[in-house]
């Protein structure tokens, strides 16, 4: 089995300033540059200096404001044939968009997140809008991932809390994967499961959970990267996505104003861990020690939507066995969500 994983990795302070140098070291001279909406003014000067000093030519530039698949098709057609690499700079939208553009044109992608709110910056799929509905589509695996930890630290805190939510929830996702094996015989890729669990462990057992600490930011970013790699190894999203993701996807459907994906899966992970039992105390510690629970007190999810999402969640993905598939569990979970003190602080 041949597995394609990112080969260029830099996760460190001030990595953005060296972006031109990294490109040149890899032999790239001519690039297409895609900006996330609203970030160009903050990074334009840094990028110009970085590219000029490394003699990198920007052949094509575009600001990405949408994640509609039709726009991605149009952008793919506009890419100059001489363009050697696509560089995606910004948040999840531009990176998802560019993963698909690069996939269509079969050119390498450099993923350069300026904020981290989930594990998508290194995963092999994109979340795009297809015919008005959000869908997950196969995309390219980034050739490289460059993360400037100082830039990530400067972004609004909600994003990094989202990243944390999409990281500690891997513990409930992997539990569900193993439960599916016991109930349906679905194959568990042990290596992918281990990589993903190790990433969650690195976060859980890192003591100084202080967002001002660049090393902590590096731990979160590199662990999320590893969960993306676990999905590449598994060939599906199972290591990174279980019942907590079903609840979050259901919440997206019933709520007019959904929150960040990572915040939703984080809250849902705590909820479903109640049913899993083995994971409950650990997830409880994760959300308390990281400040996630306190943060959610200030930006709670909608209680009514969350309760409706619980009942919709088992039907979100056909043939996807999780703890929610067991008879009577939704009712038990509903009671827990309505009565647990910590849970209630995260729902408004
Ligand atoms: Zn996720």
Automatic annotation (TrEMBL):
KW Lipid metabolism (keyword) present: yes
Domain of life from the UniProt record: Bacteria
UniProt GO molecular function: metal ion binding; oxidoreductase activity, acting on CH-OH group of donors
Gene3D superfamilies on file: 3.40.50.1970, Dehydroquinate synthase-like - alpha domain
Residues reported to bind NAD(+): 92-96, 114-117, 123
Cofactor(s) demanded: Zn(2+)
CDD domains per UniProt: G1PDH-like
Residues noted as binding glycerol in the record, renumbered to the chain: 119, 166, 245, 261
Cofactor binding mode and count: Binds 1 zinc ion per subunit.
Keyword Aminoacyl-tRNA synthetase in record: no
Database matches in SUPFAM superfamilies: Dehydroquinate synthase-like
UniProt keyword terms in alphabetical order: Cytoplasm, Lipid biosynthesis, Lipid metabolism, Metal-binding, NAD, NADP, Oxidoreductase, Phospholipid biosynthesis, Phospholipid metabolism, Zinc
Pfam family, one: Fe-ADH_2
Any GO BP annotation: phospholipid biosynthetic process
Entry's transmembrane regions: none
InterPro entries the UniProt entry points to: G1PDH, Glycerol_DH
Name this polypeptide is given: 3-dehydroquinate synthase
Taxonomy of the source species: Bacteria, Pseudomonadati, Fibrobacterota, Chitinivibrionia, Chitinivibrionales
């Amino acid at each position: 089995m041949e597995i394609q994983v990112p080969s260029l990795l830099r996760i460190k302070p001030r990595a953005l300033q060296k972006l031109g140098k990294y490109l040149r070291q890899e032999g790239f001279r001519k690039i297409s540059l895609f900006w996330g909406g609203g970030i160009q003014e903050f990074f334009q000067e840094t990028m110009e200096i970085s590219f000029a000093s490394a003699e990198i030519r920007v052949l094509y530039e575009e600001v990405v404001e949408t994640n509609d698949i039709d726009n991605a098709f149009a952008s793919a057609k506009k890419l100059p044939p001489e363009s050697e690499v696509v560089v995606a700079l910004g948040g999840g939208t531009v990176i998802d968009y560019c993963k698909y553009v690069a996939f269509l044109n079969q050119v390498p992608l450099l993923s350069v997140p300026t904020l981290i709110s989930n594990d998508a910056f290194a995963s092999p799929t994109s979340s795009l809008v297809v015919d008005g509905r959000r869908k997950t589509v196969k995309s390219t695996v980034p050739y490289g991932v460059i993360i400037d930890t100082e830039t990530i630290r400067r972004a609004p805190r909600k994003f990094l809390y989202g990243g944390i939510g999409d990281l500690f929830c891997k513990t409930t996702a992997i539990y569900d994967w193993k439960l599916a094996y016991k109930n349906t015989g679905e194959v568990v890729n042990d290596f992918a499961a281990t990589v993903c669990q190790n990433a969650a462990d690195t976060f859980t057992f890192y003591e100084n959970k202080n967002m001002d600490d660049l090393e902590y930011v590096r731990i979160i970013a590199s662990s999320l990267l590893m969960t993306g790699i676990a999905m590449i190894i598994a060939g599906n999203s199972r290591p990174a996505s279980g019942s907590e993701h079903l609840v979050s996807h259901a919440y997206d459907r019933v709520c007019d104003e959904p929150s960040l994906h990572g915040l939703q899966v984080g809250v849902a992970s705590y909820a479903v861990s109640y049913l899993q039992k083995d994971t409950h105390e650990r997830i409880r510690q994760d959300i308390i020690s990281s400040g996630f629970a306190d943060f959610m007190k200030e930006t709670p999810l909608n209680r009514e939507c969350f309760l409706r999402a619980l009942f919709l969640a088992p039907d979100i993905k056909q043939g996807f066995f999780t703890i929610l598939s067991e008879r009577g569990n939704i009712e038990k979970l509903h009671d827990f969500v309505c009565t647990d003190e910590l849970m209630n602080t995260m729902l408004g």
